[in-house]
Amino acid sequence: MLMSTEQKTYPSQFEKVKAITDQLEAGIQALFDRDKFKRYLKTLSKFHDSALNNTILIAMQIPDATLVAGYTAWQKQFGRQVQKGENGIRILAPTPYKKRMEVEKTNPVTGEILTNPDETSVKETKEVLMPAFKVVSVFDVSQTEGKPLPSIGVNELTGDVKQYDLFFEALKQSCPVPI
């Protein structure tokens, strides 16, 4: 029996981020298609707290998504389990890191760069927070099963408004824009 000496290689974090940003660029270009733009706006209205890039990535992968969270967040925070066989929605998550760097020292009051007697700038070592991202998977609520999601505790409004016609007419009269 012959054994294969070929080793499987996995993409680096840089390659994963590059692939998803390339996908993001293609998605932005595709947004100019009228129907896709309408679907994107519908998705955007549901994910107003998400970063624009991630909203686009979610809309491209599952246009009908309504609520997304990570695998363990669904389990621990909501008592729900991702259904077997579901593929995650790939988005970018910030993963900043600290790096010690030598930077020019500035006067804390004036902001001017401090100089040595030989006119070179004074240097100091500082920890600088460097921005970075990694690709992570999240899942839409439609991909999960389990406990019902918590509600905000408001019952659906029922009934009608007394004297609605009078109220609406007063609103039309006082509103600065046409209704």
Characterization of this structure:
- The chain has 179 residues and is an alpha+beta fold.
- The chain is built from 5 helices and 7 strands.
- The protein has helices at residues 13-30, 34-46, 52-61, 71-78, 164-174; strands at residues 68-69, 80-82, 89-94, 97-104, 123-130, 133-140, 144-146.
- Strands 1-6-3 form a 3-stranded antiparallel β-sheet. It has a two-stranded antiparallel sheet with strand order 2-7.
- Helix 1 crosses helix 3 (52-61) and helix 2 crosses helix 3 (52-61).
- The chain is extended, with a radius of gyration of 26 Å.
- The relative contact order is 0.14.
- The mean pLDDT is 82.
The shape, in one word, is: extended
**Helix-strand category:** alpha+beta
Number of helices: 5
Helix content: 25-40%
Q: What is the radius of gyration?
A: 26 Å
Distance between the termini: 80 Å
The whole-number mean of residue pLDDT values reads 82
Listing every helix as H and every strand as E from the N terminus to the C terminus, the arrangement reads: HHHEHEEEEEEH
Total beta-strand segments: 7
Largest sheet descriptor: 3 strands, antiparallel
Low-pLDDT segments, ≥5 res: none
Read across the widest sheet, the strand sequence of neighbours is 1-6-3
How much of the polypeptide forms β-strand, as a percent range?
A: 15-25%
